[in-house]
Write a structure and sequence with these properties.
Elements lengths: L5 H7 L11 E3 L7 E6 L4 E5 L8 E8 L4 E5 L10 E4 L5 E9 L2 E10 L2 E3 L2
Amino acid sequence: MSGHNAAKDLVNAGYDIADPGHQGTIGSPVIQGGVVSLVTAAAETRVLANPERAGLVITLGLQTDGGDAVVTAASAVNQTGNNTLTLADAGDEITLKSIRSGSSFVYRVASNDGVALSTV
């Protein structure tokens, strides 16, 4: 990557974040945005770590539906206080953006298509 093309190269770069698998933690810590394509073989869980800075965008999508993928965020993802995201069908997706809230960084829902939100 040359200096004069750095911004273009970053925009075009693929930011696939590996699915950590059942009971794994997504981005510990999350230092860059990207897409997590979740694959389940049965009902499975994941944890979403808090972001390390503001301005990150992360999309969680259920690629292969072998059972629900239940993702528990380290902090609430909306003003309601929901911290549990359930992706039940292939194609369900949610995009989160990171912001500063008080002295911490948290995710907030930017878009949601089919993901059930609840509080644990």
